[in-house]
Specification:
The chain is mostly beta strands and about 325 residues long. The chain has helices spanning about 30-40, 80-85, 130-135, 200-205, and strands at about 5-15, 25-30, 45-50, 50-55, 70-75, 95-100, 120-125, 140-145, 150-155, 165-170, 175-180, 190-195, 210-215, 220-225, 240, 250-255, 260-270, 270-275, 280-290, 295-300, 310, 320-325. It folds into two domains: about 5-125 and about 185-215, no CATH class; about 220-325. It contains four helices and 22 strands. The strands form four sheets. The chain has a nine-stranded mixed beta sheet with strand order 2-5-12-6-7-11-10-8-9.
Length: about 325
């Protein structure tokens, strides 16, 4: 017998880097155990270009269903962390985590709208709990997200099957450390995990439609336009003009490459968001006189910064530059 499925929820990802053409570069996966549970609950998840849609043929089945369903997301773009403003570290590996049952003020809350930040990154741990032992010492408790103590650890790693995969808190006194447990190891871990409580999903839908969204922050960099062609020496008063604001928001300075060559460059006075689209309109001009609206256009449309080439400031790791050679 054919079943009729009803649209009960949407999870949407937004990223300023893509603008209105928000085609998010990910692949969604669901483990075998969670897939069986979805089938038993008559739930169906359909990936879209910007998230996923949730369908149900019988919402009564999820009304009182405890626990959570884990959705794994794998980023398909190797430049994702170049244009996304997240301080991801790889030792230990981290993943983004969100759920629909945390308090609204939680950094892990999946809501509408919801903003992802570096605080949403959690360390991935195997049975050795190496990162947790290093941070908290040999004795601590492992809690679920509600603060309920699940087990006490006293210097020994976990054994297989002792803890299901998922999000936990390690607690010692007033100190807590969030981590995501993967008993099977850290090979091919997802970039993001979203935990959905079926019971909370039913409450949020409220007989209709639940909407969740996560907005990912775009990285901003200081742009350097480097005049690498000797032809520019023939001009007497070069500058970069923002055609939208009609302001000159770049400062002229010398820039020396590691090989020792020094060039004139124009550095943006403030960081500028990276973008997959044509988000800025800069011109290289000579003899610009705003009071007379007079200028000589040298390059009508300058190229914008690429997420492929980022350069951290040697003296300030929080400052990142984009170099554009013209």
């Amino acid at each position: 017998m054919n079943q009729s499925f009803f649209h009960i929820a949407q999870i949407r990802f937004d990223h300023e880097y893509f603008g209105e053409n928000n085609s998010f570069p990910f692949q969604m996966g669901i483990s075998e155990g969670h897939s069986r549970r979805l089938k038993n609950l008559n739930l169906y998840f359909k990936p879209t270009v910007s998230g996923c849609e949730v369908f149900s043929s019988n919402t009564d089945l999820i009304q009182d269903e405890e626990g959570s369903i884990e959705l794994d997301f794998y980023i398909n773009d190797p430049l994702f962390y170049n244009y996304t403003d997240l301080d991801k570290t790889y030792h230990p590996p981290h993943l983004l985590y969100a759920n629909n049952f945390s308090f609204e003020s939680s950094v892990y809350a999946l809501k509408d709208p919801g903003m992802v930040s570096s605080a949403s990154l959690v360390a991935v741990q195997t049975a050795s709990l190496e990162h947790v032992f290093s941070a908290l010492g040999d004795h601590f408790e492992i809690q679920d997200q509600s603060g309920q103590v699940l087990l006490s650890v006293a210097g020994s790693p976990l054994v297989a099957g002792q803890l299901p995969d998922g999000f936990y808190l390690a607690a010692k006194g007033e100190e807590t450390l969030a981590f995501y447990y993967r008993g099977g190891g850290t090979f091919h871990i997802p970039d993001m995990v979203i935990s959905l409580s079926p019971k909370q999903l039913w409450q949020d839908a409220n007989g209709g439609f639940a909407q969740y969204s996560l907005s990912l922050p775009v990285r901003k960099t200081t742009w350097r336009y480097i005049l690498s062609d000797p032809i520019y020496s023939r001009y007497g008063d070069l500058g970069i003009l923002d055609m939208k604001s009609k302001n000159v928001n770049f400062s002229k300075e010398d820039f020396t490459l590691s090989a020792g060559n020094t060039f004139t460059c124009f550095r943006s006075d403030r960081p500028i968001p990276l973008s997959a689209n044509k988000a800025v309109d800069f011109q290289l001009v000579d003899q610009y006189k705003p009071e007379l609206n007079s200028k000589t256009i040298v390059i009508k449309s300058l190229p914008q910064a690429s997420a492929q080439m980022l350069y951290p400031d040697v003296g300030d790791s929080s400052s990142i530059y984009s170099h554009i050679f013209i």
